[in-house]
Write a structure and sequence with these properties.
mainly alpha, single chain
């Protein structure tokens, strides 16, 4: 497993695309799962997403 980065293929901050790339998942599926999980878990996933957006470096920088 390599280092986790935010991807340049971004919709908001590139976190989902970076996670999908790291774990070999489909980007669209990762984004859908993230949105559904954020809604079901009362925003806990949204908070985790924001934290990752702040601490993960952008790919290629």
């Amino acid at each position: 497993m390599g280092k986790l980065y935010r991807s340049n293929d971004r919709v908001i901050a590139g976190v989902c695309a970076g996670l999908a790339k790291e774990f070999g998942l489909d980007v669209k599926l990762t984004r859908i799962i993230t949105v559904v999980a954020a809604l079901l878990l009362c925003g806990a996933v949204a908070i985790a997403y924001l934290i990752l957006a702040l601490i993960l470096p952008v790919e290629g920088k």
